[in-house]
Amino acid sequence: MPLDLLNLPRNSIIAILKFLDDRSLLRLREDLQTHDITLEFGFNERRDCSMWKMCSIRIPNSASLELIEKIYPTHVAFQFYALTRVNCKFLNRVADLVESIRLELDKTCRVFAAIANDVLNRKCNRLEIEVPYRNASISLAEAERMIKFFHHKQQPIRFVAGANAQPCNVQIGLYNMSVEHMGEWSGTRITIKHLHYE
Predict the structure, then answer these.
(1) Where exactly are the structural domains of the chain?
(2) Reported pTM
């Protein structure tokens, strides 16, 4: 009996799509374009292949860009170990093609405002940057500077990283800043999010 994906709840569809490879997602997206449904997916530098094995897959930026130019998704997500000049140029090219980008970095990077500025000066009108909070830590002074910069941009931004601060939850203009203690081993996480960020 064939499964009618279009009538399943959204959460179920997302859970099913997590098990598909990129080629199957591309084929499914092409089929769904006739039904006027948006399919979101992302590219990772690495991915779990099974419960017990870990496999590393590196998709060249040129192949990712070619795929994005072919299917024109509205949202893409990227995971980079480090943000190199090549990756920054690639992000700028992607920002010319898509409306929303989610960026996850594994390594500490101190040029978040510059990245946001470059990406949001293009077609992209929504940006999310996440750095695992055990890998990067910013101070409240750095967070305040970022919020001031974010206010100069009209597009909504969400930023998550580690923090050297006591837990708090405050609203500064159009942005909410929350600092949470995530546990003894995880440390403290700061989230800076536009009030209208969904």
Answers:
(1) 1-37, 40-130
(2) 0.66
